[in-house]
Design goal:
One of its GO terms (molecular function) is DNA-binding transcription factor activity. It holds the Pfam family HTH_Crp_2. Keywords: DNA-binding, Transcription, Transcription regulation. One of its GO terms (cellular component) is cytosol. The protein is α+β, with helices and mostly antiparallel strands. It has 2 domains: about 120 residues, Jelly Rolls; about 80 residues, Orthogonal Bundle (Arc Repressor Mutant, subunit A), CATH 1.10.10.10. Helices cover about 45% and strands about 25% of the residues. It is built from 9 helices and 11 strands. The strands form 3 sheets. It has a 4-stranded antiparallel sheet. It has a 4-stranded antiparallel sheet with strand order 2-7-4-5. Strands 9-11-10 form a 3-stranded antiparallel sheet, with helices on one face. It is globular and about 55 Å long. The model has no long low-confidence stretch (mean pLDDT about 85).
């Protein structure tokens, strides 16, 4: 996280809270939720239909911000659930209201974080609209690896990977069976390996090709 933004959060935070894996951090429609920054752990941002079907919109990693949109809409616009045990720093939402006038440079850094989250969801939208199942998995793996690397979460050539096949299925709009089959195919082809809740990329060039990344 940006050092200046981290310093602001450290000075303004009122408490640290922890959520167990599977715990609901925020529910869509919650009024005036606090602003959270993720100190450790993984979570997911999602929406649900009335019949219980779930669409995971994005995965939340350490350094991400939760609840920034709610500062403008007064209610949470998505639900958030912990995937692993999660530690969060709490910043009162009223502290954000005057931030753009008092410390515009810090407000800009908050905006940059949310812009990156928007980029992640736009990539997700591209996958859901145009990519095949294999391309979707490859693109998601590349995006998560890049985000993890930027947060110094990559050790050697592998990163933490606590996601289940159900998480992948719900994020990518495919069935659980299809997610299982696609993961096996990509690993059998030697593009990456998942073992012991860690993911190792074995052939980055082939993975980029499989993901059909848009040309710059």
């Amino acid at each position: 996280m940006d050092p200046e933004l981290l310093d602001y959060i450290q000075r303004r935070r009122v408490e640290d809270v922890a959520f167990a894996a599977g715990a609901r951090i925020m529910t869509e429609g919650d009024r005036n939720p606090p602003l959270y920054t993720v100190a450790s752990g993984w979570a997911m941002r999602f929406k649900m239909l009335q019949d219980g079907r779930r669409q995971i919109l994005s995965f939340i990693l350490p350094g991400d911000v939760i609840g920034f949109q709610a500062q403008f809409f007064e209610t949470a616009v998505t639900s958030i659930e912990a995937i692993t045990e999660v530690s969060l720093c709490v910043v009162p939402h009223q502290d954000i209201a005057g931030l753009y006038q008092e410390q515009p440079e810090v407000a800009f850094r908050f905006a940059a974080l949310t812009a990156d989250q928007k980029r992640v969801m736009e990539e997700q939208l591209l996958s859901l609209g145009q990519r095949t199942a294999l391309e979707r998995v490859a693109a998601l793996v590349l995006d998560l690896y890049g985000r993890a690397d930027a947060r110094d979460m990559v050790r050697g050539d592998s990163m933490p990977f606590p996601l289940t096949q159900q998480h992948l299925a719900d994020a990518l709009g495919i069935s659980l069976v299809h997610a299982n089959r696609t993961l096996k195919q990509l690993q059998r082809d030697g593009l990456f390996r998942i073992k012991g809740r860690r993911l190792q990329i074995l052939d980055a060039a082939a993975l980029e090709k499989a993901a059909q990344r848009p040309k710059a």
